[in-house]
Amino acid sequence: MRVVATAGHVDHGKSSLVLALTGTDPDRWEEEKRRGLTIDLGFAHTELPSGDEVAFVDVPGHVRFLRNMLAGVGGVDACLFVVAATEGWKPQSEEHLRILDVLGVARGVVALTKVDLVDDDRRAAVRREIGERVSGTFLAGAPVVAVAPPSGAGVEDVRKAVADLVAACPPPADRGRPRLWVDRSFAAKGAGTVVTGLLTGGSIAVGDRLVVGAVERPVRVRAIQTLGRNVEQVGPGSRAALNLAGVDHGDVSRGDAAVEPRRWRPATLVDASLTVLAGLPHQVGRRGAYLAYIGSGEHPVRLRVLGAPSVAPGTTGRVRLHLATPLPLLPGDRYVVREAGRQETVGGGEILDVAPVLPASKARPDRSVDRVVAERGWIEGDELEAITGERRAPTVGRWVVAPGALREVEATLRERVGAAGPRGVELASLAERDRAVIGTLPDVVIRDGRVHPADARDPLADHPAVELLSGGGLGPPDPAGFDRGELRALVRRGDLVERDGVYFAARAIATAAELAAELLAGEPDGFTVSRFRDAAGITRKHALPLLNELDARGITRRRGDVRIAGPRLQQAGPGARSG
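Below the sequence we write its predicted structure tokens.
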């Protein structure tokens, strides 16, 4: 499906043309029909000769309803620009064209309406005027199709031109990040809350969990309609109606967005480009009561020009916008700015940064992801995707790191490890980022929970405590003269075992396990501590900790006063059996 917006001056025949093309009157309200004036957005759809389906968003042409017009043209694929042969180019024709231009609409068809009411000379004159007016805009070179909807003359020509237009549009981008800007919210009898809008960026399916609006109300999609049909899933570039559970229709309004939870970072401060309309009679600075039109909504904003005091007409600058309402935005989103006091369209542009971290005096925004990373130094991969829409492979751990920031941390860690001496740096004392980096450095090693230079001698290698306890077998002496920190490190590396305050060489546990297996082979009902003590030739001081260690390892299991076979006894020795 493609979405095409109408545009043009009031009473130039936009709604009549949509009716002739689709068979649907886009004027929904009684007041619109009574006054013959489109006040709010209207919607209609049809199937083209090619088999493609197209949805029309019919927008108001009167200046008093410009806010409604702006709500309908965000994110559309193309436009059907309407100019009446009877009146020619008018003020709202100009304003609509400039708005569509700054919104980045790239394709269009011009419908020259009411041609049945003028002679050939007038038609030719208006065609020349249209050519002059659209020069230098996206409509330059666009086909101009004569049409008289009441009689049907030229309607099929417009239909074919729209079909060619739709065929030339690239497929809608599917970034896996659906966002539906709400342009209507109402209660449907027997269904509850229904919201409609243009879906971009991804697909939405029945059952999906979303959040809606600035307060991110959680909702569930109960049903979906597009082009009047119930569907299980709808893709990007479609107009859709979502039946939502979990929210009252009065709590959702035009300008809200429905998005997936935790995938966006709703912004109240954004940096953007601003192209000021060439015909504006003054420069644009921070003074003024500005309104930004983003998505389907109108939002009061404070505007500050970056890097200069103002932006001149016909030029492009950078600005920082302070929004009153958090919005789920991404770089590349388009917007229009109007000055409320003067009632004039100022210009518009593209969102560049939805989470600026530099002060306005230093900010030089663009859409580069590398710039976002460089300004932060470190940023989690999920956070980077949420504010840029792009996924980058983590540099280290879960972070994407600027090269300079990473080199700085690496140098600091090497200096710290080198200055720590033979004992090294305790790994647990490092911050999480530092721990992630330390594991990537080829010139350091981690032993026993401590970080050492790779070429440093292992201070625990051939430690005399291991030799002393190994020589004692199952009844080793107390290693009272050794540093307790070194003993704990020897336990961590597996050279020693500590149980109930008594230290053993690692080999002693294997010997004790073999002895327990031999005892159980002859005494399957179990053996006592004293039986084990006598068989080992040791005192109870050593026998009990050894048996507790065997219990902990599953080699033996205590039952009352005896030890019986544990689930891992068979691993203890070739003569063992489970009992």
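Residues 28-40, 61-65, 575-579 have pLDDT under 50 and may be disordered.
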